[in-house]
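User:
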Amino acid sequence: MITILNKQRKITLNKDRLLHSAEVVMKELGYEDFDLSILLTNNKTIRTYNREYRKKDVPTDILSFPYYKLEPGQKIKTSDDEEKNIGDIMISLEYIQGILSLYNVSLEERLDTIIIHGICHLLGYSHYDPENDAIMSKLEKKLAKKLKIAASDCPSEC
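Assistant: Predicted structure:
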């Protein structure tokens, strides 16, 4: 089950589209029966988490908190349904709204890219070295095609 909790009130969005996009990505990756939590928040909150967990005292667009530590491409193996969880994603709509002009897309289109990126991180993909970056980028482009959106590079200062 995918849970979306909107804790900010300044920016309106199509929550159904975000849910659908997350469902498509999860299904494409073979995790349609796994749980995923998405928290929509503001710059202040995401900055606090970024500072605590990444030691970066700045807001960002997305943070991913995986339930499992995986290598890219490694599949999650569970022994029961209670373990079917890929993790949590935190998204600052305020941050994304502030950089939309860089991408020339709508908020919903940018969120599609962001959700792909976050789910990839939850599944062990990263862009912290050239080899892993190439693997993640290829997967993101494949998933973007499924959502019928243009693929882009890393959505933030990763």
